[in-house]
Amino acid sequence: MKGKFKVLLTVGLGLVLVVGGSIGAHFWYNYTHYLSTDNVELVADFIKVTPLTSGKLLEFNVKEGDYVVKDQLIGRLDAGVDSGAASNIRAPISGIVASKSALVGEYESSATSPTLALIMDPHKIYLIANIDETDIAKVKIGQAVDISIDQFKGKKFTGKVSSISQASNNAFSILPAQTSGTFTKVVERVQVKIEINNSDTKLLPGTNAIVKIHIK
């Protein structure tokens, strides 16, 4: 019995070492070859639709979700003496109307540059990943990225690092830096822009994602 017990114990310890070694090797490989974070958001550049002249809004013929092409006539102002082409409102880019705030009948003043609508290009949605300052040196432009988007469970996307911010998020904060009292050191984060490779999936700006950057 003692002999069998020793054999079983030896086999058991061997399995533990093998499994533990495999797990350790897996984590070591991922740590040295990838940089992962879930502090990621899908982003689009929203272009404002604003009138070129002041006047009463007579027409605004698009709604949220409509697709428009650049220079398409989408609205019209009663500009008084400034009539003609100047009173037309045209789409600044081709894309989807993401939001609309224009109300027919309102007076719109070009001096205040009112936002009548926001348009985004659905083919130019990208990711902003917030990387800890302690890890940012590992990130280089052009590195491949594996992407998981929360909205699409199980579907994998790919991309690449396209730019790295030259300052931490805190540098752009509207709040002044702490100058008195107890100082608490926190890890700053740096924004990394990631382009998504060609995708036929409808992506929604503002949703969350997880990225794994190939650092080796």
TL;DR?
This protein has one helix spanning 2-33; strands at 34-43, 47-49, 55-60, 67-68, 73-78, 88-90, 95-100, 107-108, 117-120, 126-132, 144-149, 156-168, 189-196, 208-214. By secondary structure, it is mainly beta.
Mean pLDDT: 85
Give the SSE order as H and E letters. HEEEEEEEEEEEEEE
Main-sheet strand order equals 1-10-13-12-11-14
Tell me the name of the CATH class of the largest domain: Mainly Beta
Low-confidence stretches: none
State the domain count.
2
CATH topology title of the largest domain: Elongation Factor Tu (Ef-tu), domain 3
Count all strands and give the number.
Answer: 14
The CATH architecture category of the largest domain equals Beta Barrel
Radius of gyration: 27 Å
- Helix proportion of residues, in percent? 10-25%
Q: Quick one: biggest sheet? A: 6 strands, antiparallel, barrel
